[in-house]
Structures are given as C-alpha cells and as structure tokens.
C-alpha cells in the first residue's frame, strides 16, 4: 500500500508538479477553443468507467475528455472491468479511443494517476510502476490550490460486501448489468416519447431503505478514515453516487461514474471543488428494426418546415451542468 502519511508522503509538488509550474497553475492562453465551451481545470477525478462492458458510456466520456484539460487527471478505480471481461469479451472501438485519449493526455504533459479498484484489481500487482507515463497506485494524496489535503482511493476496501462476501458482489454485479440493459431500452422509449432520462438504479438507491443505509455507511466510513489519518477530505468512487458534502468536519467527495451519472469531480484553478455532469442532447442511434417506424417522428423532431421542405436543425452542443459547489 502506498504510504500517504504526512511523514512519508512526498509533497505533491515534488512528485507530480509540471516542469513549467510547480504549483500546478495552467497557462490560461492554452484553454481557448473554437467550440467556446471547453474547460480547463487544475485537477479532474473520474472513476467507474467500466471499459469492457456494454454499459460504459464511452462516446460521451471521450467527448468529455476532448473538451476538458487539466494539470492532474486521477483515474479512481474500476477503469477497465476485469470482472465483466472474464465472463464475456466486449471491447468496442470507442473504448480503445478512450484509452488512447488518456495516453495522449499523459504524453502532452497531464499528470495521470491510475488508482486500482475492485473491478480492475489486477492492477494492484503493479503498484508504483508507470505505463505510458501513467503511475499505478492504491491510494494517493492530492493537495488543492487552497492547501487542503485530500485522500484519493477507490473505496472498495470500505465495502463490507466486497471484503466479506465477494461471491455476493459478483452476483450483484451481474444483476446490475441486467438492470442497465433494461434501463437502456426503457429510456430509449422515453426519449422518443419526449420524456427525460430516468434511472432505475438511482431510483432504487434512493427509495430502498437498505440501499440508502449502505450508501450512508460507506460515506461515513470513508470520512472517518480520512479524519483518522488527518486529511481534510477524501475522494472516492465505487458506489456510482456522485456527491460532495461535509461529514463530521471532513469533505467527502464521490466522483460518480460513466455508466449512468456521467459525472466527474473537478478542482478549478483557484482550488474550488465541483461536480460536473456531462450530458449530450443529441439522440442516440435508433435500433435497426424500429428505425422505419420512428423515421417520420425523428425527422419532425429534429427539423423545421421551410417552404414545404424539412430543414434539419443543428445538433446542440453538450451541456455542462454544475452542482454541489464547495468553497
């Protein structure tokens, strides 16, 4: 385990600082973009990508990576889903594009750290090593621009199911995969009925008493660990529940996932922590068998009539919605 105690942990500026600026400041001139909505952050945390599964929103993740830049990029576990790949091989070209984009960021100067999780636990055999400039660790510390010390780890060590009944975790993972598939078709129908996205798993997390209790216990356990080790806050993933809140004087941050939430935790250039949600308004592909049925509706929904002809509307740009601001 990587020692992050104050006596043994090297200062962030010593371990990760860019050559041009030991404090992690970015050149503001490098953030200009013809799109007008690109964003530059001091640090970005993303986790639970689950590359290697059909549920991974790789295209939207790639779009997020293309339109955001940062000095530090933390991959906070469950990046590649080894559990799913052992059951059935699935690797879309978009998943490969995400990996290549992250490697390209590393080559261009972004300091990328890979934190191992439970779905990619094989990475824990390579702790301390670097591949393509990406360092693999079990946990690290991040020091914000405002001097706050954040413990960064995936969080599976604080999940009682993972630690005590791993077979149950495997079973739950398969049930979650089935639920995502059902949810995908359900929301496809909702989209074409003009209704917004609705997440079955998020609904169950908030409505089922045991799920709410599990999430709360997980958050409290992480905050307690950070406080015991004299950190100002903790950043984790694992439970697919984006959140920023204070727990007994400790800042608890969960960066969410890229299966449903499409969220990331970011640190602005002045040290403010925020949750960022990345959603695209453009409709997803229509399944082949149903395409003829919905062709007329799709055309009318994405065009206007001018002089008796249908003129297509321009596709809207992805929207960045920010919430849970932390001063």
Strand/helix succession? HEHEHHEEEEEHHHHEEEEEHEEE
Mean of pLDDT: 74
Alpha plus pi helix count: 9
Structural class call reads alpha/beta
Please state how the strands of the largest beta sheet are arranged side by side: 4-5-3-2-1-11-12-15
Poorly predicted runs of 5 or more residues: 1-36, 161-170, 280-327
The CA-CA distance between the termini, in Å, is 31 Å
Give the CA-based shape: globular
Q: What percent of residues are in strands? A: 15-25%
Q: Sheet bearing the most strands, described? A: 8 strands, mixed
User: Into which percent range does the helicity of residues fall?
Assistant: 25-40%
Give the beta-strand count: 15
Mind explaining what this structure looks like?
β13 (303-306) and β14 form a beta hairpin. This protein is an alpha/beta fold and 327 residues long. 32% of the residues lie in helices and 24% in strands. α2 (58-66) packs parallel to α4 (93-107) and α7 packs across α8 (209-228). It has helices at residues 12-15, 58-66, 82-87, 93-107, 160-164, 166-191, 200-207, 209-228, 291-301; strands spanning 39-46, 68-76, 111-115, 130-131, 134-137, 139-143, 149-153, 233-236, 243-247, 250-254, 263-267, 273-279, 303-306, 309-312, 319-326.
């Amino acid at each position: 385990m990587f020692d992050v105690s104050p006596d043994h942990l090297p200062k962030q500026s010593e371990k990760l600082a860019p050559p041009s600026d030991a404090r992690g400041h970015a050149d503001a001139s490098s953030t200009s973009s013809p799109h007008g909505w690109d964003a530059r952050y001091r640090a970005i945390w993303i986790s639970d990508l689950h590359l290697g599964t059909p549920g991974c929103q790789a295209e939207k993740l790639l779009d997020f990576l293309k339109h955001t830049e940062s000095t530090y990029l933390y991959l906070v576990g469950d990046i590649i889903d080894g559990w799913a790949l052992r059951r059935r091989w699935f690797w879309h070209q978009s998943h490969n594009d995400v990996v290549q984009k992250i490697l390209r960021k590393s080559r261009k100067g972004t300091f990328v750290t890979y934190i191992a999780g439970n779905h990619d636990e094989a990475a824990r055999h390579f702790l301390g090593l670097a591949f393509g400039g990406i360092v693999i660790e079990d946990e690290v510390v991040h020091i914000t621009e405002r001097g706050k010390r954040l413990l960064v780890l995936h969080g599976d060590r604080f999940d009682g199911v993972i630690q005590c009944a791993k077979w149950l975790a495997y079973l739950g993972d398969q049930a979650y995969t089935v639920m995502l598939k059902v949810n995908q078709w359900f929301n496809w129908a909702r989209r074409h009925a003009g209704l917004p996205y609705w997440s079955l798993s998020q609904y169950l997390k908030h409505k089922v008493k045991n799920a709410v209790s599990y999430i709360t216990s997980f958050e409290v356990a992480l905050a307690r660990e950070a406080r015991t080790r004299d950190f100002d806050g903790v950043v984790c993933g694992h439970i697919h529940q984006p959140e920023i809140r204070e727990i007994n004087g400790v800042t608890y941050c969960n960066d969410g996932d890229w299966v449903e939430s499409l969220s990331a935790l970011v640190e602005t250039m002045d040290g403010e922590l925020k949750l960022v949600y990345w959603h695209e308004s453009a409709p997803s592909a229509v399944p082949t068998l149903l395409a003829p049925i919905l062709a007329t509706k799709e055309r009318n929904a994405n065009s206007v009539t001018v002089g008796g002809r249908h003129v297509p509307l321009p596709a809207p740009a992805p929207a960045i919605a920010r919430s849970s601001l932390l001063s």
